Amino acid sequence: MNEPQHELLLDPKSPHIGFLLADASRLMRKRFEHESRDIAMTAAQMKILARVWKMEGTSQARLANALDLEPITLCRHVDRMEAAGLVERRPDPADRRARQLFTTEAGRALLPDMRIRGERVVKAALRGVSEADVQTVIATLNTIIANLGEDGDRACDLAAAAQVTEDA
Amino acid sequence: MNEPQHELLLDPKSPHIGFLLADASRLMRKRFEHESRDIAMTAAQMKILARVWKMEGTSQARLANALDLEPITLCRHVDRMEAAGLVERRPDPADRRARQLFTTEAGRALLPDMRIRGERVVKAALRGVSEADVQTVIATLNTIIANLGEDGDRACDLAAAAQVTEDA
DNA sequence: TTGCGATCATAAGCTCGCTTATAATATTAA
DNA sequence: TTAATATTATAAGCGAGCTTATGATCGCAA
């Protein structure tokens, strides 16, 4: 009698919202990459470049914080973006550990086109979705991000303390 | 006069829904992994294992279709999952190219606990979100997935076929 | 002033998704 | 029957995220 347990584990009628989020996000990313394969920049790089533009001369640590990325993740991005001529690293005159980040003329030149294509993908993704529902989704996603990002440690401790099942 | 253009490129008041999706998805995945670091299985592996359980003996190609993954992506997962003893590959007696997939007793044993922790993460993520809004988000995510998957040519066919290939 | 703990950047190596390519086998057409 | 095509699994290698660790430097405190 396995059938009922199957339903419990992966109910097709109400799929785990985490899986839905992952699938929707993955498909949008995939579509965007396909939509802009002729531009030498990815969506993640666009996001980073736009932020560097707003924080011209910032350090990688502060930028990583602003983008909610781990420093090493950003560092790898900057490696590629610097190699691609999108961004420039200069030594910080006030702190010999740090490097200042600057956009390149070439990098800035690509941003508007990227944004246009991104909007095209969003429009395709949201076809048939009402404006009200879009707003609900945006608000809910922001709530989720706040819930999970606010204080990871505390919430995790609470949850972890809840249950430890020892099968013996 | 850069300020107005900055707003256009990355408006903090209405951030690109694609970025929100990616962030929410990433944070949920991160939280889940933290929540279940003592279990030798990831969320993606859980999803795959549950599906193998429903399609015991299926081929990797059909499983990849059912999960909407590229065959090579699934192949890599199965590599790791087989090494971890979660899943088993056997030669298909009817097709010498194919391998049949089966869950392991050890793999099945981990699923219920994984599901419980997944639900805990979802509950934490959705704190303060009304049930109605959750339903709206689920419906919208399904629309997005359909919108972006259908145009990819025949994702609908694949999804439909996946449901049918169940046992008889 | 020294010395010790934070902070900055980054190395190593992992999962997870992808594209592109290839060997083996199956299947279909000629 | 044989030749062309399709399918199955997998290799190689990239992007995007992560954890953990390490060398340099900064800053504070004894």
Features:
DNA-binding, Arc Repressor Mutant, subunit A, mainly alpha, disordered N terminus, two-stranded antiparallel ribbon, globular, homodimer, 2 strands
Please render the helix and strand layout as text:
The structure is a homodimer of 168-residue chains.
Chain A: H1 3-9, H2 17-35, H3 43-54, H4 60-67, H5 71-83, E1 87-91, E2 99-103, H6 105-125, H7 131-149, H8 152-162
Antiparallel strand pairs in A: 1-2
Helix pairs in contact in A: 2-6, 3-6, 4-5
The structure holds a DNA duplex (30 and 30 nucleotides).
Number of strands of chain A: 2
CATH superfamily of chain A: Winged helix-like DNA-binding domain superfamily/Winged helix DNA-binding domain
Share of helical residues of chain A: 55-70%
Task: Give the overall pLDDT of chain A as a whole number.
Answer: 86
Computed over alpha carbons, the radius of gyration of chain A is 21 Å
- Can you summarize the main beta sheet of chain A? 2 strands, antiparallel
The CATH class name of chain A reads Mainly Alpha
Overall morphology of chain A: globular
| Second rung of CATH, namely the architecture of chain A | Orthogonal Bundle
Describe this structure in words.
Two copies of one chain form a homodimer. A two-stranded antiparallel ribbon of chain A has the order 1-2. In chain A, strand 1 and strand 2 (99-103) form a beta hairpin. Chain A has helices at residues 3-9, 17-35, 43-54, 60-67, 71-83, 105-125, 131-149, 152-162, and strands at residues 87-91, 99-103. The radius of gyration of chain A is 21 Å and the shape is globular. In chain A, helix 2 (17-35) crosses helix 6 and helix 3 (43-54) crosses helix 6 (105-125). The first copy, chain A, contains eight helices and two strands; from the N terminus they run αααααββααα. Chain A is mostly helical. The first copy, chain A, has one domain (22-148): Winged helix-like DNA-binding domain superfamily/Winged helix DNA-binding domain (Arc Repressor Mutant, subunit A). At the A-B interface, helix 1, helix 2, helix 3, helix 6 and helix 7 of A face helix 1, helix 2, helix 3, helix 6 and helix 7 of B. The structure holds a DNA duplex (30 and 30 nucleotides).
